[in-house]
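Bit of a strange request maybe. I'm writing a small parser for structure token strings and I need a real example to test against, not something I typed by hand. Could someone generate the tokens for this chain?
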Amino acid sequence: MALTRLAHRFASRSRRIAVRVAAAALLLLPLAPAPPADADVVELRTGERVEGTFKGADDETVRIEVAGRVLTFKPQLVRAIYYGSVPSPAPPALPERGDALKALQAIRSVARDGVGYREYARQVGEAQTVVDRYLEKEEAAAPFKNAIADSFHLYALAGAAWNASASRGNYAAVGSDAALLRCASAQRVIAQSKQKNPFIWRSKGQGEAATTGMVIGTEGITALWECASDKLAEAERRIPAGDRR
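Reply from user aminoacidic:
Good idea to test on real output. This should exercise your parser:
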């Protein structure tokens, strides 16, 4: 029994020495340009990663070429081999991601025919606090963050257009919002208006922006909801695994 424990300790020590020797060999290599983004990677069980060109593996060795020199590792020292690149680690969980998602889902649940402006504006106002708090804290999940920001902006723009239509407010601010250019449904509403009522589109500059805002406020609210919902669906697909509930 004592011999077995001694053998295990010796084997473990040997593995540690082998890893240290391999790491030292890396330090002795001549300086070379950084490996390309699509370099292969051998990840050791110690957590170290060796980037280069994978040369093969068998029962005896795992081989990777670094700066013109082939390094070898025992298979039992290798945790994983990545061909092309190492997968990006998942961003750490952030409770505010789920909160922002739920806030937008609440807007989506009321953004339909029959909802009153007051109820809609209340949902958007409540969501803004939650979404702003999330956007301030997010530092990792860029695709999810962008989808959340775009979705909320479109829902808020729909509210601004609705308010402008109801109170003859600032149509130009609505019509000049760049988000309209990224909303295919809104662009269809505008194109259809230009075909049916070309005479109202004779003004240019701020006049054209005001006309655009008026058309969106009277005919395009549901189009903005559609685009906002599409962005929300994208966020639902892109939420990091650690935040899914």
